[in-house]
Amino acid sequence: MMRSMYSAVAGLRIHQTKMDVIGNNISNVNTIGFKSARVTFKEVFSQTISGATGSTAPQKGGTNPYQIGLGSTLQSIDVQMGSGTPQRTDGAYDLFIDGEGFFVVSDSSGTYFTRAGAFRLDVDGYLTDPNGLFVNGW
Q1: What is the rounded (10 degree) CA torsion for 14, 101, 87, 82?
Q2: Residue 29 has pLDDT above 90, yes or no
Q3: Beta-carbon-side half-sphere exposure of residue 113 (alpha carbons within 13 Å)
Q4: Phi/psi of residue 106, nearest 5 degrees
Q5: Rounded to 5 degrees, what are φ and ψ at 25?
Q6: How far is Cα 45 from Cα 48, in angstroms, rounded to an integer?
Q7: Cβ–Cβ < 8 Å for 42, 72
Q8: Pairing between strand 66-79 and 110-114?
Q9: What's the pLDDT tens digit per position in 77-127?
Q10: Which of 36, 49, 53, 55 is the most buried (most CB within 10 A)?
């Protein structure tokens, strides 16, 4: 009885994680440069009741192991880094990343990465993002 309760609780916990990721995807759908995420799960085997056996007769195969599990668990939360849909902005300095990658921006406090390509020139002629961070390049 307790194993079935653990299995149910494990399923509910990872389902909650999946709902959190979906909620984050929905709430950020219109955020510039946002990349959605997806959740993957894996099985959890906790106890092997009997192991696998080999063949006992010339024309027979062996048997598979008997396992009792405790449900499933979170395997990973993957960020989907594919390209989004480009949109016309008429900004002379706006850029779009086709594929994986980031723009590198920085200021005196540090270096940051972004996929938002809404850039402009500041009063000194430097390429910056809307927050005033300088776009770095090589």
Answers
A1: -40
A2: no
A3: 5
A4: -155, 165
A5: -60, -45
A6: 8
A7: yes
A8: unpaired
A9: 998 877 777 888 888 999 988 877 889 999 999 999 988 888 999 999 999
A10: 36
Q: How far apart are CA 121 and CA 126, in angstroms?
A: 5
Nearest to 25 by CA among 33, 15, 17, 36: 36
Measuring CA to CA, which residue among 74, 76, 66, 84 is closest to residue 28? 84
Q: pLDDT tens across 2-20, in order?
A: 777 888 888 899 999 999 9
- No. of helices (H) and no. of strands (E), the chain: 1, 7
State residue 93's pLDDT score.
92
Residue pair 136/107 in contact by the 8 Å Cβ criterion: no
> Quick one: pLDDT at residue 1?
67
Task: Tell me the CB-side half-sphere exposure of residue 126, using CA atoms within 13 A.
Answer: 14
Cβ-contact 29, 84 below 8 angstroms: no
Task: Please report where in the chains the tokens 């500041």 appear, as a residue.
Answer: 122
Alpha-carbon gap, residue 108 to 13, rounded angstroms: 42
